Amino acid sequence: MSRLLVLISCFQVVLAEPYAVISGYLGDNVTLPSRADRSWHLSKIEWSVFTNNTWIATYRNGKTNIERISQFKGRLSLNITSGDLMIHGLTKEDCMEYTVDLINTEKTSTVNKLRLQVKEHLQKPTITTLFSTPEKGGCWMGLHCSSPDRGVNFSWQVIPDTRAAFSMWDPSGNHGVFLAFLNTTSKLNFTCTSSRTMESTSSTVTPQCNAGDKPEPQLDCRDRCGLCFLLGGVIMGTCIIIVYIFREEIKAAWKYLSDKFCPSTIPS
Question: Which Gene3D superfamilies match (predicted)?
C-alpha cells in the first residue's frame, strides 16, 4: 500500500482526451499532433501503433529514436518540444491508429490517441472531342469531360469567353458535355475542372476548327448513350417548363374540346 501511495505522489496522471481524426493525402507529409500542454517541458515522448503498442518514435533521456520499425524508416520527424510527429511520403499502410505517451519534467503524464486517414488526390479530368460539325464560318464542336473519381463536381471555362456555348452534365456526376461554336480564326482554351470539398484539378485543351473538314464523330457507345440522355433531359425539362407556363391556357383548351366533343349531358 505504501508503494502505491509513493507512485501516486510521484506521477500525476492526466486522462487521455477523446479521439482525434487527422487526414493526409497519399504521397504527401502529415503532422500528427501530440496535443501536449504548451506549458509542458517534455522529458519523455513515445509514439506507438497497433494494439501491442509497437513503438515507432521515442524521446527518452535526451535521445531520439525514429528508426524503430521498417515501415517508417527514413520517413519520420519528431519534434521534442511539442511532441508532434511528422510522417513523410504517406502510404495507404499508414492509415491506422496512433498513440502518444507523454511525460513532462514535473512527472505529469498523459496519453492521447488519434486515427490517421489517408486520402488520394483528385486525378486530372480527361477531355475528348465528341464531334466537329462544319458550319458557315466555323464549326460546332462537342467536348466530353470525365473523371475516374466519384462524387466530383464539374465546371467549364472558356478563354476568351464566347456566348455560343452550352454545357450539360450527367446527373450521376461522372461526366459532362460542352457544345460550342468556333470560327476558323478563333483560338479558344477550354478548361474542365473537377472539384470535391476543398480540392480541385483541371485539364485544358485548345481544339482547332477547319470549316472545310467533314464531321468525324468520335462517339463510342457509352458517349452516345450519355449524350442522348443529356439531350433528352434538356428537351424534357423544356417541355415541363412550357407546360407549367401555359398551364391555364392548356386547361381552358382542354375544357373547350371536352365540352365540344364529349358533352356531359345527352339531349332528350
Answer: Immunoglobulins
